[in-house]
Amino acid sequence: MVDSEPSGVRRLPAPPSTGLYTPPSGYTGTATVDTPGISVDVRPMPGGHRNTYAQQAHGPIMSIPGVPKPKRQILIMPSVFEGRPPVILFTYTQACLAKQRNCERMIWADINGPKMYYSHTDAVHEYNAVINSLRQGGLYRIKSENRRWSILWSTHPTGELLDAMKANQKTNHYPGSQNLGRKDLLWRNVSKMQRSFGRSYNITPQGYILPKGNKEWEAARTLQADALWIWKPCSQSCGRGIKVLSSDLSAEDQKDLAHKRGIVQRYVPNPLLINGYKFDLRVYVVVLSYEPLKIYVNTEGLVRLSTTKYSSDPSTLACRTMHLTNYSVNKLSEAFVQNKDDGKDAKVGDGDDSEEVDEPEEEALASKWSFAELRKYMEQHDLDYDVSSSASMTWLSRLCLLWSRSSLVSGAELLIRKGVVGELEAQQVPIQQAALRAMALMS
């Protein structure tokens, strides 16, 4: 039973044949249980101080001193470039089971030195991976209205925020990077580059931004009656709202999509399959600077597989676990298999690209692979992994060049050169069977 009056006092159930001690009105100290010869302070006082009132009433009581929290320590990596400041190194957590990176050049900061802070606002979803990395990196969290932070994790920074930022403050977004992250803006910028550079920027299927481009899409469906299309909301993620459609739309779908904001693209009809399953590549890219353009690409990444074997039959278009490779969608499938990072679950043997219904296998196919596992699979099936990887790198470079030419960059160019912002991108790259080209069909 919890007592609500007076404030701060908890009443605990008394053993049989004993009374229940209740402090007088206005007393807000710790609660005690009145039992024959025993009195226990159930809420330790700060610094180990005893509750003098309870001690007078019941004699000596047990007191538990507070345990100080261990201080966090920051690991610093000196720059290899002369005159550049050091950076904070975020090591791998034990939970990720990854081999720890080389720390020979690292220096521990003074544990009694100034603290460093981060702020994570409510404007974006809070991921445990982000919070745990920042905490393990030695940073302390403060409220978003407090401007003492060194790292701000939030939405795209406003001009006012950028003006107020100091040289030692970083955000997780470049200003204007929504030109890559929003699907409608991405296609708009790609189409501009196609008009300027022609076939060099044929890196994604034809798209139409709805509802403005609805008439053009209707004409395209008329000319391509057998084509399939994929519709996505402009700024959603994790597979939310995505639809795969045929050219022959129902009256309900035509009415709905004619007034809904989104982008529709020609669906890749012949995707490269792994043992009959559709997949994409999640490539992790760090963009340190756009002027000059400086990109680092992780040599490892994720291969995300669907959990239902692929079919181009129009009757299967509503099957999200067949046509979408998003982890958020497929993790709910009964056929999803966790990769245990020991290589046992990632079966890369002979597969069957047929369109038959799933059948039980002796060894389940893991639903996530590493790039190393994909290379092994492609080598076994006479596919050139290096050609595919090179095409992906070309696509990523052109994507970054596309953004750097955007007019939205010019206003933030000085701040970017100062290095006050940074960007981490994770792009999904489906691969087409015919040419093994990197496609910009972002999920």
How do the strands and helices of this protein lay out in sequence?
Layout: H1 52-58, E1 75-77, E2 87-88, E3 107-108, E4 117-120, H2 128-136, E5 140-141, E6 151-153, H3 159-164, E7 170-171, H4 178-181, H5 183-197, E8 207-210, H6 214-223, E9 228-232, E10 243-246, H7 251-257, E11 262-266, E12 273-274, E13 277-290, E14 293-297, E15 302-305, H8 320-323, H9 327-330, E16 368-370, H10 371-380, H11 385-404, H12 413-418, E17 423-430
Beta-sheet strand percentage? 15-25%
Describe the global form.
Answer: globular
Mean pLDDT rating? 76
- Pattern of helices and strands: HEEEEHEEHEHHEHEEHEEEEEHHEHHHE
Q: N- to C-terminal separation? A: 51 Å
Per CATH, the architecture of the largest domain is: 2-Layer Sandwich
Question: How many strands appear in the DSSP assignment?
Answer: 17
Number of helices: 12
Q: Multimeric state of these chains? A: single chain
Helix content: 10-25%
As for the number of domains, it is 4
The level 1 CATH classification of the largest domain is: Alpha Beta
Fold-level CATH name of the largest domain: D-amino Acid Aminotransferase, Chain A, domain 1
* Low-pLDDT sequence parts: 1-24, 27-55, 348-363, 407-422, 431-443
